[in-house]
Design a protein that fits this description.
The protein is mostly helical. It has helices at 3-11, 24-46, 50-53, 56-60, 68-84, 90-124.
Length: 129
Amino acid sequence: MSTLSLRSWLLGARPAPDENRLHIWGLLLVGLNVILWWFGWMCPGSGIGIADHYPYEAINMLPGYALLVPLLGPLLFFGLLFLRRLCKKCWSYYACTGLMLGLTLAALLVVVWNFWAVGYIYENFQPLY
């Protein structure tokens, strides 16, 4: 892979209208968002029982309403991916690309935060029986 094609994907440069190549970085980003959406459905279930059996300090470590980010972020990503194809101006294309990358990073951070917090709670807190 050449540096020019990697730089154009990272900066969001649009391919020529007659280009029909597969862009591997975009495909990987779409795959990551599908996986994040799946993990977004798993995240709320990972904390079941913590509120009943662990102290209040442990419950405060969980993301709470931030769990909506992995559920809604990938859906917004796919909507922006569709809208990005219709962008005629360079600034609108870059804005869509930036929002897509931001949504992906936010969803990834919330998923990692949730599973780290659940693991930390189970390892370091004693249940309140």
